[in-house]
Design goal:
The chain is an alpha/beta fold. Helices cover 29% and strands 21% of the residues. The longest helix is centred in the middle third of the chain and has 17 residues, at 202-218. The protein is globular, with a radius of gyration of 23 Å.
C-alpha cells in the first residue's frame, strides 16, 4: 500500500509514458505508480494519506542549479538592498542596520545595484562614513563581484593608498590622491575585508539554514546546486553535512568545491557524484572572469564607451587549462563561471582540449553563459557542456546590457539559440543576487521582461522559451547536470518522490502571472514538507 496518494490533478510528469496522468502513489520516499485516478485508487489503504488536488497542476520538485544558499541564509538577518531603486531608501536601510548593531561590530549585507538609483556611478566610503562612524560596514554588490565598505572597514583591513591591487582584482582609487574609494572589485580584493570579518557559530548557521530551507519549500524548491565554495571561512559542505547528520537536511544539495582545494580533493580521491541524491559532490567551481555590472566580464571587444576596458581574466587560459586537465583526470566535473564572450570562448577552447573535441562522461558546465558570441552558439552542445543559466537576471540586466554591451546583447541569455543547438539548459537564480523564486525564473525565461513589463514584447524575443522548456531547465535539465536524471526530474515510477503542487496552471494562464502563482504543497522524499492549503 502507498503512504501518500495525490489524485484528481493534472500531472506534468515529463515522462512520455504518462502524458495524461491525474494521480500518483508514493511509498517509502519513492514514486510507486503514476496514472489515472482509477488506476492509482487501489493502492490506497486505510492508513494512506490522500490529497485531492482539485484539478491543480503537479510538477516534479524544482531545483535551483546555481545558488549561494548558505550566503542567502546568513544574509536574511543582514542589511538587504536587493532591488532598492531609491538612494535615500538605501541609506535608510543601512542606517537601520547600524542602529541595531552594537558599536564596533560589523554591519553586513548586500544586494545593492548602482544602476537602479542613478546614473550607474558606484557609491563610495564617504556615503557610509557619516551614518556609520563607529561600525565597520561591508556590503556586497548584487552580483557579488564588488564590495562597498566604509573608512573604518578599510582601516581595520589596513587598506591604504599604498596597498597594491591584489592579483586579478582591483581597489578603486581617487584619481588625484590614490586613496581607496571604498569599492573593492573581484575576489582577491574582497578577501582583504572578508578574512577579518568574524564568522557566525555553528548553531547560528544551522538555524539560518533551517529557516531558509523552509522558505525554499514555500517556493517549491526541493533541490539546489550550492555555489558557495570552501574558499569562504564557513564551509557550506560542512554546514549541510551537520544538518544531514541531525536528520534535518530536507533539501537535496549538490555542493561545489573551490578550485583552491582541488589538490586536496584529488589527494582524497573525491569525485563528482560522491555521496547520494541528498548530499553529494557536484564539481569544482572556478572563475574565468568577473561580471557585467562590475565592469569585469572578459570581453572580445571593450565595453561600450571605453577604449580599453575588456574586463578581467580571473583565471588566465594557461592556468585554466592546467586546472581543467587535473580535475577532469581525477573525475571531477568543472563548473566554470564565464559571463563575457571572450571568457566563454576561452572556457570552450579549454574544455575542447581536455575532451578531445567530443562530449565527456563528466558533465562539465559553464555558469551564466551570459553573453556568448554567435560563432560559439553551437559549441556547448558539440562538447556536451551544460549551460547553467539564471533567467531572473534578465529582469535587472537587460537595460544595463544594452548600455555596456550594445548590439552584443542580442546573444545575452541566448536560451533559444542554445537550446535549438542541442545544449542542455540547467536553470537557477544566483540567489541572493536574484530572488529565490523559481516561478519568477520561469516567467523571465518565457517573457524576457522586467517586473514592469519592459521592454515591450520582450528583450530580444527570439530567445524566449515556452513554459514547458523553462520548467525542464528547473527539473530534468537540473537533474542531468549532476547525474541524477535516473532518480529525479520527472514524475516516474521508481524515482524519488519530490513534487510541487501549484495553485494555478502555469501552462494556461497569462505568462505575466506565472510568478504570482502560489505553491500549495511541496513534497520532499515522499513527505509533505510545506502545505499552504488543507
Amino acid at each position: 500500500m502507498a503512504d501518500l496518494v495525490l489524485y484528481n490533478g493534472k500531472l506534468h510528469t515529463q515522462d512520455p509514458a504518462y502524458p495524461q496522468a491525474t494521480a500518483v502513489a508514493i511509498g517509502e520516499g519513492r514514486i510507486l505508480a503514476v496514472g489515472r485516478d482509477a488506476e492509482i485508487e487501489p493502492l490506497a489503504g486505510p492508513n494512506t494519506q490522500t490529497i485531492d488536488l482539485k484539478g491543480r497542476l503537479v510538477l516534479p520538485g524544482l531545483t535551483d542549479c546555481h545558488i549561494h544558499f548558505l550566503a542567502y541564509a546568513l544574509r536574511r538577518s543582514q542589511v538587504i538592498l536587493d532591488g532598492v531603486d531609491d538612494w535615500q531608501e538605501v541609506r535608510r536601510r543601512i542606517l537601520a542596520g547600524v542602529e541595531r548593531t552594537a558599536p564596533g561590530r560589523w554591519v553586513l549585507g548586500g544586494g545593492w545595484n548602482q544602476n537602479l538609483w542613478g546614473d550607474g556611478t558606484f557609491p563610495s566610503k564617504a556615503d557610509l562614513d557619516d551614518i556609520s562612524p563607529r561600525n565597520p560596514v561591508a556590503l556586497s554588490r548584487t552580483d557579488g563581484h564588488s564590495l562597498w565598505v566604509n573608512s573604518l572597514a578599510l582601516e581595520k583591513a589596513g587598506i591604504t593608498a599604498e596597498t597594491p591591487d591584489p592579483p586579478k582584482s582591483r581597489i578603486d582609487r581617487d584619481p588625484d590622491s590614490g586613496e581607496p574609494t571604498g569599492i573593492l572589485r573581484e575576489w582577491e580584493a574582497i578577501r582583504l575585508i572578508r578574512e577579518i570579518i568574524p564568522e557566525p557559530n555553528d548553531e547560528s548557521i544551522a538555524a539560518a539554514l533551517r529557516e531558509s530551507i523552509a522558505e525554499a519549500h514555500r517556493l517549491g524548491l526541493t533541490a539546489i546546486h550550492e555555489m558557495r565554495v570552501e574558499r569562504e571561512k564557513t564551509p557550506a559542505l560542512r554546514a549541510f553535512l551537520r544538518l544531514r547528520q541531525q536528520g534535518e537536511l530536507l533539501l537535496r544539495v549538490a555542493c561545489m568545491i573551490a578550485v583552491e582545494h582541488l589538490d586536496e580533493a584529488i589527494t582524497l580521491g573525491l569525485g563528482s557524484g560522491l555521496g547520494d541524491a541528498t548530499l553529494r559532490i557536484g564539481g569544482v567551481k572556478l572563475f574565468a572572469d568577473g561580471s557585467m555590472g562590475s565592469g569585469t566580464a572578459w570581453m572580445l571587444e571593450p565595453f561600450e564607451g571605453s577604449d580599453d576596458n575588456y574586463g578581467l581574466a580571473i583565471t588566465p587560459q594557461e592556468e585554466l587549462l592546467d586546472v581543467a586537465r587535473r580535475a577532469h583526470a581525477a573525475g571531477l566535473s568543472l563548473a566554470i563561471h564565464a559571463i563575457g564572450d571572450r571568457a566563454i570562448r576561452e572556457v570552450l577552447d579549454v574544455l575542447s582540449q581536455i575532451q578531445g573535441g567530443r562530449p565527456s562522461a563528466l558533465r562539465h558546465r559553464i555558469e551564466h553563459v551570459q553573453c556568448i558570441h554567435p560563432d560559439d552558439i553551437h559549441r556547448p552542445a558539440q562538447l556536451g557542456v551544460i549551460a547553467s543559466m539564471q533567467p531572473p537576471h534578465i529582469m535587472d540586466d537587460w537595460a544595463v546590457a544594452d548600455r555596456v554591451w550594445g548590439q552584443r546583447g542580442r546573444y545575452a541569455y541566448a536560451f533559444r539559440s542554445l537550446l535549438d543547438a542541442g545544449t542542455n539548459l540547467a536553470f537557477g537564480s544566483d540567489c541572493p543576487v536574484a530572488p529565490l523564486n523559481p516561478l519568477l525564473g520561469i516567467q523571465a525565461a518565457v517573457l524576457r521582461q522586467d517586473r514592469k513589463g519592459k521592454p515591450e514584447g520582450g528583450w530580444y524575443p527570439a530567445e524566449r522559451l515556452t513554459v514547458a522548456e523553462a520548467v525542464r531547465g528547473y527539473t530534468l535539465g537540473a537533474a542531468y547536470a549532476v547525474g541524477l536524471e535516473d532518480v529525479l526530474g520527472s514524475i516516474s515510477p521508481g524515482k524519488l518522490a519530490d513534487m510541487v503542487v501549484l495553485s494555478r496552471d502555469i501552462f494556461t494562464i497569462p505568462p505575466e502571472e506565472i510568478s504570482d502563482t502560489q505553491v500549495d504543497y511541496t513534497i520532499f522524499d515522499g513527505q509533505v514538507v510545506y502545505r499552504r492549503v488543507d
